[in-house]
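Reviewers of the previous submission asked for a worked example of the structure-prediction workflow described in the proposal, so we include one complete record here. The input consisted solely of the amino acid sequence. No template or homolog information was supplied to the procedure at any stage.
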Amino acid sequence: MSFSVTRRAVLAATAALAVTSGSAFAQDKVQLRLSAVNSETDQRAVAMTEVFGPAVADFADFEPHWNGTLFAQGSELEAIASGDLEMSITAAQELATFFPDWSIFAAGYVMQDADHQVAVFNDPVMDPFKQEVREQLGVHLLAPMYLGRRHVNLRQTREEIDVQTPADLNGVNLRMPGTDAWQFLGRALGANPTPMAFSEVYTALQTGAVDGQDNPLPTVVDSKFYEVTNQIALTSHLVDWNFIAVSAELFDSLPAEQQEALTSAAVEAAKSGREAQLALEEEQVSFLKEQGMEIYEPDVAAFREAVQSAYLESDYSSAWPEGVLEAVNALGN
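From that input alone, the workflow returned the following structure tokens.
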């Protein structure tokens, strides 16, 4: 997909102005509208507003739109591809809907932690994936953003169920999102995954309709699941990540120094958001313990081995390039 001739001319003119010194005409700034579904208080939004925006202010007008107010969720990448939008924060799951090989980065236990995400993103193993997105969708990925870790949260006390390996979740009715991919992950964890609307989860935990649910700690706190559950096994079965994305054509139209500045700003914003989110997670562990929750780490290696084996034996891995999983694993612990 390509921009219109008119838009291409505008971008070329903007780039030309940026590299012209001593011009009698005032330099026009590049417009960078970002559309994302998260709220303005989300750590990713705070980082983009407080770090990214000021870092590019010399040559760009950064204009973020949160809560899906500019483009609806799922339509941002197509808007970038068609030239109707400059930036977005996209997810591995969303990219996998365009490119099946990207499903490897949305699978359970592939990403190990926030540092592992950065290492994978910056490693040559990811270059073909980035290039695929660039060439076929016209989207340039600038930096990875840490979203959080999903854990198993149960009604039972640790005396009743001590979750150390997938075998300990046998027979546990674990609410998980209703898509086939999420239900597959629940079975791979050893549980009996139960599809249910998120709005029903609190009551279902309260009444015992389900034994537990899986979500990052911020969701446990925000939704007050700690009122109706007793423990959290820090399985970290999905270390979720997003990517700061920009129009490839716009990026290529900028002079080298502005490309470097844009990339550096994204990397610094991602770092700021990552550190803030990790700190928040630590604070929430303390808060949840104060509420009487038992929080502990199971045998994560045993979970990772079981879940990855399940993926490799399924159709999900058929699109994964040979050797990529091993290379990604080697970049972790």
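Residues 1-26 have pLDDT under 50 and may be disordered. We consider this example representative of the routine output the project will generate in years two and three.
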